[in-house]
Specification:
Layout lengths: L12 H17 L15 H14 L13 H9 L1
InterPro entries: IS402-like_dom (IPR025161)
Protein name: Transposase
Pfam families: DUF4096 (PF13340)
């Protein structure tokens, strides 16, 4: 599902460009180590990061995460790792 408007907590394009290489490298190192079990990742890293920031900035429990983000289990898995 694609959002029509970004949330105020979403990363700007400039901030995403700064952290994307590090997150992509981290994801590549951890393939097959429980996060995606060797499968091709199904969820966009930027959307996962936006979801983590949304929970952090709003203070909501992760089970109240809006449906237009990655599944809450995925978001929490990345947050915990």
């Amino acid at each position: 599902m694609t959002r029509q408007r970004p949330y105020p907590s979403d990363l700007s394009d400039a901030r995403w460009e700064l952290i994307e290489p590090a997150l992509t490298a981290w994801r590549a190192e951890h393939r097959g180590m429980g996060l995606d079990i060797g499968r091709r990742p199904q969820h966009d890293l930027r959307r996962i990061m936006d979801a983590i920031l949304y929970v952090d900035r709003t203070g909501i429990p992760r089970h109240h995460l809006p449906h237009d983000f990655a599944p809450r289990e995925t978001v929490y898995g990345y947050f915990a790792a």
